[in-house]
Please model this.
Amino acid sequence: MKKWICGMVALAFLCLSGCSVHTQKTVFAMDTVMDLQVWGKDSEAAQQKLAVLIEETENTWSAMDRNSIVGRLNAGGAVVSQDAHDFLQRAEELSKRTKGAFDPRLGGYIRAWGFYDGAYRVPEEAALQQAPVQWDLGGAVKGYTGQQAVQLLETLRVDRAILNLGGNIQTYGEKKDHSPWVIGIQNPDGGNYLGTVSVVGTMAVVTSGDYQRFFEKDGTRYHHILDPETGRPAQSGLRSVTVICADGLTADVFSTALFVMGLEKASDFWRQSEDFEAVFVTDTGKIYATQGAALSGCEYEVIAR
Ligand code: ADP
Ligand code: MG
Model:
């Protein structure tokens, strides 16, 4: 008994002087549920700082807020901070890499479909033609937030973390036993996960799908990933694309862009790239994964270089 009490006291002392505490918190931001899990001596404080970062990033980049940077840019204003300038520049560079499949200026189309205010409608062709060119960073901001979170976690005394930023998974650090983080890929039809991907260390696993935001009218589903060439929901034969990448912003931009490209173009894009892997679910339910994607738990066809 005495030995046991001594053990408990020693453990408590160890914990006070640097035990890794696991804390979990759910926040609602960017129109989605986010789950923040952090391990570390000061995990609670780190989590609070993460929540503040998420809220600030949302306020800064919301396309619906006139006072956000996006709101002010769309009203003809200029970018004021270096951070904002850097984000916009990187979004532009990545957009160029995708040959415009990711277009950070299709806010006019998004508005025409009613995705901002929830007043969903199928716009006339004329309305799309006349839609103004407006900034919308909705396809990149969660990945950017993940990237900002990684920078913040690096400055804090955190051992490891896994953040679910509404379908954007950002891992930070290695698990205690050095086993990979195992991340479920959502089934576009709902229900259980389709399969899992394994990643080691700090990585982003980001999914874009037609099931995340959509409305139905006269039996047709209209989702929120638009083809910049038509201003209409991309009909590329895909239901979802998951991108696995060391950089959260790149992962987010590419998941949206690859969805627009469709399987064939996206596979070629991957063959020309070195910095990401991807998993595709087609509208016939077939699953494809690039050869480095470390997908398991389901049957799939490998996309080779
Ligand atoms: P989610 O935000 O659901 O995680 P995405 O990352 O794919 O999914 O982002 C979709 C959002 O990106 C849309 O709501 C819209 O704001 C914007 N968007 C839609 N189509 C495009 C596109 N082709 N290029 C850039 N942004 C897009
Ligand atoms: Mg995206």
In short: The chain has one domain: 2-63+84-303. The CA atoms of residues 226 and 233 lie 4 Å apart. The longest strand covers residues 21-29.
